[in-house]
Amino acid sequence: MKTRSRAFAAGAVALAAATAAVVWWLGPLQGPPGAGDSFFSPRAGSLQGAGAGPQPAAQALESSFFAARRASDAQHSADPLLVHGLRDTIEALLMEAGAEDAADPAALKQRLAALVGKHFPAALVTRALALAERYVDYRVALGQLRTPKDPTDPAALRNALEARHKVRQQFFDSAEHDALFAREADLDRYTLARLEIARNTQLTAEQRAQALRDAENELPEARRAERAAASEHVNAAAQTAAFNAQNTDERTRHAARSAQYGETAAHAMAQLDREEQNWQQRLDQYSQARAQQNDAAALQQLRQQLFSAEEQQRIDAALALRAAQPPARGS
């Protein structure tokens, strides 16, 4: 139980760092950024212990994380295994196998062999299992890296990214790396560039603005489009939060949203409002019942009545988030 608690605590700290990185990715040049979704994510070292040695790579990666980026994209890969979303699939496989609590990589690999067919088609199972086993070894090795004391120090972050890249070189060839990490690596390089620009006190305001534009132009076109779309989502979320704080009525919300995002988007956002309101009401009902009674069986029954199986995985985190938020004014 203590091991699991430590894992959850580490995951919470990592999530905070990852969230800061997303803000840095999307937001204005202000405040301390995080260090990137990759190096400080919960994926970055939840396994401990020694792993098996790496398998030889078919095609070597560039020697440096900051070498000129190849113009490849896993989304358009001819290899049915090395496609966009591969890392998420492997992470889902590891989660089902109990990777968060695994102290024995060899035992974890045995469990992966029994589960891999649920996550990959039969024709890819053998290759997928081999890749997943190397991914386990990669995570073990990654867990041995030292986290920078100050993740907002550009030099420390640069060194950390290089160190992580060297670990990846040990376990994956270039095509595998692109499928697993290319999008994340683009974000990391851009995050570091913005951090270095922010810390450069010799730049004038005009030079800093131009340097930021140049850094964004270094992103692949697909990443720039993703950043623009994500920025819109962040803006829309901020607008919704403001509406909620002011108890803005549906008609006013719809008028503002349709003018800014279009009629179709306004209707979709209104539906999200209704779903969120319903979710919060059910959380209220469950939270009140939990505070009033100690009957675990009755609470479990209510939990199943109020929430779907997928929603039940979010309940405790949602209630913890509520508890961590400051009380509203006047309450």
Provide the fold topology.
Blueprint: H1 2-26, H2 86-96, H3 105-119, H4 125-142, H5 154-171, H6 174-199, H7 205-217, H8 221-245, H9 250-261, H10 263-292, H11 296-306, H12 309-324
Helix pairs in contact: 2-3, 3-4, 4-5, 5-6, 6-7, 9-10, 10-11
Protein described:
The chain is mainly alpha-helical. Helix content is 66%, strand content 0%. The chain contains 12 helices and no strands. It has helices at 2-26, 86-96, 105-119, 125-142, 154-171, 174-199, 205-217, 221-245, 250-261, 263-292, 296-306, 309-324. Helix 2 crosses helix 3 and helix 10 runs antiparallel to helix 11 (296-306). It is globular, with a radius of gyration of 23 Å.
Task: Give the tags.
globular, 331 residues, 12 helices, mainly alpha, single chain
Quote the distance from N terminus to C terminus: 36 Å
The quaternary structure here is single chain
**DSSP, total strands:** 0
Strand coverage percent: under 5%
In percent, how helical is the residue content?
55-70%
How can the largest sheet be summarized? none
Silhouette:
globular
